[in-house]
Specification:
The protein is of the alpha/beta class and about 350 residues long. The protein has eleven helices and 13 strands.
């Protein structure tokens, strides 16, 4: 029995957000006390070359778990091939009112309506600079809740400029359902303008800093087939470096009638698995290997991760699966992917 199995029943008796915070603090403490060995050794995995970067293994931590980059070293001890922190916004914001995180235990799902709660991009950068971690670090950027969509690009530019020197890659989050109207940025005209502006800025920053930092776009699972193709074509047109599929879903078909299913927010975990995989498959077919897809959504086992890779993903990320499976999930995926 792994150590998480011992503590999981206790954590699940707590409010979900309190358990979330307690787990992160425990990881940080374990790293400080050099007790990370308690999580066990991650089996050796095949390294991957994606976005021009060398990933020691294909299993990453999705954004959302460590919004302020305050727990990088503790999380790194779990054996991830890469870690993505954020979503971060230019200015600090509290997010939505609590409670805002809910377990849908029957379906092994999670509903959150955090609303990009974070301490701001400058605070995140200080935490990144203080971390010992020297592996691949993604920084996920968003817009403040009170920034209108017509000025959203300004927020993304502020964050991109600030995090660029410290990130291995940057993710542009336009797909959270918990910031009003954010997903409207996925519409064709708005998205084309945003991608063009960010790519132009990336070129300037690469010259200024003497290094090229890839940019990925994170999209929602709640897209029509035509929208998915439009996004894929725009990513190719603007030479984006990767696409992350997918964020949480607004759909409730898979959890109808279950405890907490009626809560507003984005649903993640097992209920979004098939929806996410379908988006990955369509993207991969449309992109034809010219832009890599990073698969996330409903990965609770090595088999789930292998399914994402078979659909066309080059890498995978986990979040909700960690809540239900614990650190052993990283090992399981590594074994499955080899």
């Amino acid at each position: 029995m792994d150590i998480y199995s011992v503590f999981k029943p206790l954590l699940f008796r707590l409010d979900a957000e309190r358990a979330h915070d307690l787990t992160l603090k425990s990881l940080k403490l374990a790293e400080k006390l050099q007790l990370s060995c308690l999580f066990g050794k991650v089996p050796s995995c095949e390294s991957r070359q994606v976005m021009g970067l060398s990933f020691p293994n294909a299993v990453g931590l999705a954004a959302g778990l460590d919004k302020n980059a305050a727990h990088i070293d503790g999380l790194a001890a779990l054996g991830f091939g890469f870690i993505e922190v954020g979503t971060v916004t230019p200015r600090a914001q509290p997010g939505n009112l609590k409670p805002r995180l809910f377990r849908v235990r029957e379906a092994e799902g999670i509903i959150n309506r955090f609303g990009f709660n974070n301490l701001g991009v400058d605070h995140l950068i200080e935490n990144v600079k203080a971390a010992k971690f020297r592996g691949i670090l993604g920084i996920n950027i968003g817009k403040n809740f009170d920034t209108p969509n017509e000025r959203a690009v300004d927020d993304y530019l502020i964050c991109l400029r600030k995090v660029y020197p410290y990130a291995s890659y940057v993710t542009v989050n336009i797909s959270s359902p918990n910031t009003k109207n954010l997903r409207a940025l996925q519409e064709k005209d708005a998205l084309s303008g945003l991608l063009a502006t960010l790519k132009a800025e990336q070129k300037k920053l690469a010259a200024t800093h003497g290094k090229y930092v890839p940019i990925a776009l994170k999209i929602a699972p709640d897209l029509e087939s035509e929208q998915i193709n439009e996004i894929a074509d725009l990513l190719l047109e603007h030479s984006f470096d990767a696409v992350i599929a997918t964020n949480t879903t607004l759909a409730r078909d898979a959890v109808q009638g279950m405890e907490n299913a009626a809560e507003t927010g984005g649903l993640s975990g097992a209920p979004v698995r098939d929806q996410s995989t379908a988006v990955i498959r369509q993207l991969a077919q449309r992109l034809q290997g010219r832009i890599p897809v990073i698969g996330v959504g409903g990965i609770l086992s090595g088999g789930d991760a292998a399914e994402k890779m078979a659909a066309g993903a080059s890498l995978v990320q986990v979040y909700s699966g960690l809540i239900y499976r614990g650190p052993a999930l990283v090992k399981d995926i590594c074994r499955a992917l080899g």
